[in-house]
Amino acid sequence: MSVTARVPQDEVSREAAGLPSPYLLFLGDTVEPGYAKTAFGLRDWVGERCVGEFVLPGGRVSTGLPALAPAQAAAEGARGLVIGVANAGGIIPSNWIAGLVEALEAGLDIVSGMHARLGDIPELKAAAERTGRRLIDVRTPPTGIPVGVGKPRLGRRILTVGTDCALGKKYAALAITRGLKARGLDVDFRATGQTGIMIAGAGVPIDAVVSDFVAGAAEMLSPAAASSHIDVIEGQGSLLHPAYGAVSLGLLHGSQPDSFVVCHEPGRTEILGHPGFAIPSIEAVISATLALGQVTSPDIRCAGISLNTGKLTPEAAEAEIAAVAARLGLPVADPLRGGAAFERLLDSCLA
Amino acid sequence: MSVTARVPQDEVSREAAGLPSPYLLFLGDTVEPGYAKTAFGLRDWVGERCVGEFVLPGGRVSTGLPALAPAQAAAEGARGLVIGVANAGGIIPSNWIAGLVEALEAGLDIVSGMHARLGDIPELKAAAERTGRRLIDVRTPPTGIPVGVGKPRLGRRILTVGTDCALGKKYAALAITRGLKARGLDVDFRATGQTGIMIAGAGVPIDAVVSDFVAGAAEMLSPAAASSHIDVIEGQGSLLHPAYGAVSLGLLHGSQPDSFVVCHEPGRTEILGHPGFAIPSIEAVISATLALGQVTSPDIRCAGISLNTGKLTPEAAEAEIAAVAARLGLPVADPLRGGAAFERLLDSCLA
C-alpha cells in the first residue's frame, strides 16, 4: 500500500489501520454489480464505517446506502472516498475524474484498490496537492517480497479457492474466520485483495505482485505460527480462469494450505467478463487444486464447498446445498446463511 | 526493456535489435552452472557476438570463452558487458559492483536481465553518467500490458514446458524453431526470458510481469497470425514448481498452444535451488498442462518430450531417449543431438 509512493511492508498495517473512515463509497458509472465487490464488501463487513454512496450519471449499481454528494458525505462525517468498483485491468476512466476531484475539494481523501495509481493521474495529483488531501493506493504491494521457498512451516492454513472471480471467496474466508473465532480459536483473516485489505487493515494485494514473487508474497502473508493458530486466506481468481490463473496458482503454492474450500455460485454459467468461457465444474477445481497444491502441501485436502446462493430463495438454496453435498460427498454451505450446514463446513476445516 | 526507464512496447524490438554487441559475458563469482543460463545461451546461439568472459575471484563457472578484463574486451571490439548469471530473486550482489563499474569505465554498456534495475544502484548510475555509458534492463516489461482475454486466435503455437527451471526449455524452443525453419516453414521464436530476448532481439520478460497480466502479456507476445504461421514460445518455470508455477500457468493460458513439448533433464532429482523438493514426473507435468491448458486451448496436446542429455554419453542418451519414448508412447529427442528422433518430434509438433 502506498500514499502516492511505495512504502516498506512494516508500514502497511499502520497505514491500513489509519485509513480515513468513515467512508463514502464511490460506484462510478458502473452497470455490472459483479465489479462492485469492494463497495458491497465494505457495506457488509464494516457497514458501520460507511456513511453513503456516490453514483455518477449512468451508473446502475447501488449498495442501498444513502446517496450523498461528496460535500454532503463530508458533512455527515465521512473522511475518505473509497473507489468501490474495479474494472477489468484496474483502469480509472476519464469520466470519473471530475467526481473524484469534487471529493478532494470536499475534504475527503481518496482510497483506491485499482491497479492504476491515483497519483499518476495529473488532475488528481494536482487536486490533492491543492487541497492537502491524500491519495492512498491500497493495491501497491510492499517492496522487498522474496521468491517462494516452499518449505513446510508451522501453523494451520485454510485457503478459499473458486470456480471464477467475484463469487464469494472473500466472504467465505471472512465468514469462516468469524465462525472459528466464535469457537474460541486463534484465527486471522489474511487479505489478498483491495477490499479485504480495507476490511482487515492489512494484507498483500496479491494480483499486483510481479509473477515471479507471487508464491513468496503468499508465504509472507501467512507466516509460520503456533501450531494451534489458523490463518484463513482470501483466495483470488481461479486456477481455471483464462486471465487470472497465475494469481491463483502462486497464492496456492505460497499459502501451503492444509485444506481449501471451493467457492461457487450456482447458476453462473460463464466466466465473468469472458463470454463463451464456461464456468468449470467444482470437481475440476478440486482436482486441479489437489494436483497443484500437493507441490507445497502434500496432505492438502478439500474441506468442502461454499455456495453463494444470494440469488436463490431460501428453499432453492437449501435444495442446491443438499444436491451438491450429495453429489460430492463433502460438507456444503452458504456461509452467509450459516446454520448447521455451515457448522459442518467449519468442522471439516478443523478436521 | 528499458534504458534506465520503462519504455513503450514498440521500442522494445528496436532497442533489443540495438543491443551493444559484441558482448563480454560477465559471470560474477557464481559457482552454480545452473544459474549461468544467460552466458551459456549467448555462447551457444550467438557465439559469434561474444568476445570473451569476465569472472570475479571465487567464481567457478566458465563458458570456455577467453578470459578478458573489461579493458581487454573493449580492445577486442566488445561494446557491451552482459550480466550472464541470474541469482534466485534477481539481486545484484554488492561484490559485483566494482567489476561492473570497471566495465563502464572501459567504455562498455551494461546489459542486464536481472530483476534489480541497474539504474537503482547508485554506484552504477553515477558511473554510467560519468562515463556516458548505458545501463540496459532487458527484464523490464513493456507498459500497457492488457489482461488476458482468452479468445481463440489464428496461427499455430507450440510452447515448451518443463519439470523444473533451467533444464532446456529455451534451447528446445530455439532448436524447434531452427528445425521448422529448415523445413521452409514460417516460424518465429518468441522469447520470454532475458537470454531469449537477448538472442531474439525482442520478447517479453514474462516473469517480471505483474501476475494479473501474465496471461495478457503472453497473448501480446504471440499475437494472431496467418494460419500457416508458427510461433514457438519459450517456456518458463514449471506448473509444479513451488516458487514459479504462477509464471508458467499465466504463460500457458495466454499462449493458447496447440501443442506443447515437455522439457526434462534425466538424472535431476531435486528442484534447482529447492532441496527436498523432488522433480515431478514427466507424466505429472503432461497431466497438469493438459488439464489447465484446455481452459484456453481445448484441443491442446503433448507433441513429445525434449530431454536434456548433456551430462550423458551418446550411448546413455540414446538409451534414455528410447526408454522414455517406450514408457510414454510419445516422440522423445534431445534437440541438441538432433537426428531422426528430433525429426520425429518436429513431425509431431506439426501434426
Automatic annotation (TrEMBL), chains A, B:
Q: Which residues form the D-glutamate N-acetyltransferase-like C-terminal domain?
A: 150-340
Q: Which domain of life is it from?
A: Bacteria
Q: Which SUPFAM superfamilies match?
A: P-loop containing nucleoside triphosphate hydrolases
InterPro entries assigned: DgcN-like, DgcN-like_C, DgcN-like_N, P-loop_NTPase
Q: What Pfam families does the database record attribute to this sequence?
A: DUF1611 (PF07755), DUF1611_N (PF17396)
Annotated D-glutamate N-acetyltransferase-like N-terminal domain ranges read 62-141
Question: What protein does this entry describe?
Answer: DUF1611 domain-containing protein
